[in-house]
Amino acid sequence: MVGIPSPFGTSDDDLFDPYGAFVPENVPEPGRFLAGHDVLTGRDHLAFHRLTRELFEERTVYDMTFGYNLARLNLDQRHSDAGYRYAVERGGDDAVATDESVLRAAFTPTTPFCPQSHTLTTGSFRAWNGLSERHEYDLVRVRVDPMHNRAGEINERLRGLEETYLETGEIPAESANDTESNPLAEAVDDEESVPETPF
Fold it and tell me: What's the pLDDT at 108?
């Protein structure tokens, strides 16, 4: 496939790592949510992330700022500290299991003010757990990195989704909170548009 020409003299393909390569310097550090657990690297990371790409495509978990499947953010060399890292849960104070049935997924957005972080992490939770027959985990726990200015609020909502899923075995129906995005969008009329600035 031929890359898309760029005004900066490089092709679109040159800006992304291939899905078959694990490049540690181009993925975020695991962070606090994954600390003390078995962080996926190399082939293990690649295998789950390839599946993630498929699930996100099926459930349309897209970063609307960049216009691509959210799984591609891990490969975007322009945002080498953004994307998902994964770890198999190994117990702990807030763990729900002490075996290999739970995977933790930590999302680092491109900026501390990314307005899509709640929507993207909620969509990720729904994709991984709503299509759980496609992977080996009984639960994929999702959190946004504490660097985000609304991490506490977002993670509390994600915990609520997780608790409902564990209690009922069902993914809760989508609510208005699931699809919230840029708060500026609520302040404009339908005929106006919000500028598309990268977050």
Answer: 97
